[in-house]
Amino acid sequence: MPPETEIVRAPECPKSMEFGPCGGVEGDGRCEVAEHACVFLDVDTVRWSRERSALGPPARDTSPTPHTPADRMRALLGSGRVVVGDFPARALDADSIRECADILAGSTDAVLAGDSARSRVQFSPTYRAQLIRAAGLEVWTGLNCRDRNRVALEGELAGLAHVGVSGVHCVTGDHTATGSRPDARPVFDLDSTRLAAVARAAGHLVSVGESPATPPMDRRAERLREKERAGAEVCFVNHAGGVEPVRAFIAEARALGSGLRFIACVPIVVDVESAALLASFPSLVLPPGYLDGIFAADSPTAAGISAAIELSRRLLDVDGVAGVNLSGGGGAGGELRFADALAEVGSALRS
Ligand code: SF4
Questions:
Q1: How far from 95 is each of 137, 335, 336, CA to CA, in Å?
Q2: If you measure from the C-alpha of residue 24 to the centroid of ligand 1, how many angstroms do you get, rounded to a whole number?
Q3: How far apart are the C-alpha atoms of 244 and 241, rounded to whole Å?
Q4: Ligand 1: does its nearest atom lie under 6 Å from the Cβ of 22?
């Protein structure tokens, strides 16, 4: 009998990413979900090409239809003062969507409707966008690759074009193992870069996220350029620790030739619940002392609103920043309180 030999296989990306790394790489380089280093840390940035993406030809003509919400958003982005707010409504609750929309009316240019690690089960993106638009708000829909294969994503993109959304935020998504439904089988048929290409081909204004403070930090801007080559027009800069990291990241992207519009994420913390929800975001880095200042105040709610307004104004002054994303959530039962805070911050920025 031959001696037993152990077969050592190279680790694989648990999200089957072609254009990695994702934004969930741990600070020490470990994978978001597996007990090994992220497999993209030691390889060159993967260059975008349609052939490599394993996508078929674009499903639709890419010529934009005039006068859509996406065109209005493109024009607004040119003003450099766009305010997007994370939509705080309870999952699977049409009444909560209407109540939050009533509060937020007039205070933001669009609401970002994605999911969170605590609320993975949501109305389908298209139905949710329809409800939010019917309640009077413009929608920027977050679409992830975790829960749907490319056929289902293409169907949602067609539905979102029909409803009329301002933008589609294309993310790979956190692994199912890290959120509220670890029993679900992860899909990851596409990744954020490939989804950006499919969404652009479907005629959408496409945004992607990038995390300047997540390893490999020296190649995050390079990776973003590949998403741009795939079809992204806007980058949401994830919480990177304040104004200077955002300024440096945009400058690095511009030096690489990027023409993207940048929307900087602003942490909204008004109580313990909203701080806890924000802490569940992968690769979160807050400005130094941000939470201490809020929770040392007599009224954390008022202090959190003031801190968000001040940080937003400073970010909006950064060259290349086209807008801010008021980011976070209120936690279970705190949706309306959080919507009130968002409305106050958004109104102050738009006044
Ligand atoms: S950190 Fe993300 S990109 Fe890297 S191996 Fe893990 S899942 Fe894949």
A1: 15, 12, 12
A2: 7
A3: 8
A4: yes
Residues 82-111 have pLDDT tens digits of 999 999 999 999 999 999 999 999 999 999
- What the block records as the tokens of 235 is 């980058």
221 lines ligand 1 (CB under 6 A): no
pLDDT in the model for residue 3 = 54
* Residue found by looking up tokens 């807008």 in the block: 323
**CB-hemisphere CA count at 13 Å for 182?**
4
Higher pLDDT, 5 or 304: 304
What are the residues facing 37 on neighbouring strands? 30
Q: Which two tokens stand for residue 238?
A: 């994830």
Q: Which candidate, 172, 139, 174, 133, places its Cα nearest to that of 153?
A: 172
* Backbone angle region of 218, left / alpha / beta, with phi > 0 → left and psi within -120 to 50 → alpha: alpha
Total residue length of the chain = 351
Q: With a cut of 60, say whether residue 64 has pLDDT above it.
A: no
pLDDT at 282: 81
**pLDDT band (50, 70, 90) for residue 314:** very high
In the chain, what are the domain boundaries?
67-350
Alpha-carbon distance 350 to 340, whole Å? 15
170-184 pLDDT, tens digit each: 999 999 999 999 999
**Top mutation candidate among 9, 16, 17 for ligand 1, by most atoms within 8 Å of CB:** 17
pTM of the model: 0.95
Chosen CATH of 67-350 out of 3.40.50.2000, 3.40.190.10, 3.20.20.220, 3.40.50.620? 3.20.20.220
Is residue 267 within 8 Å of residue 239, measured between CB atoms?
yes
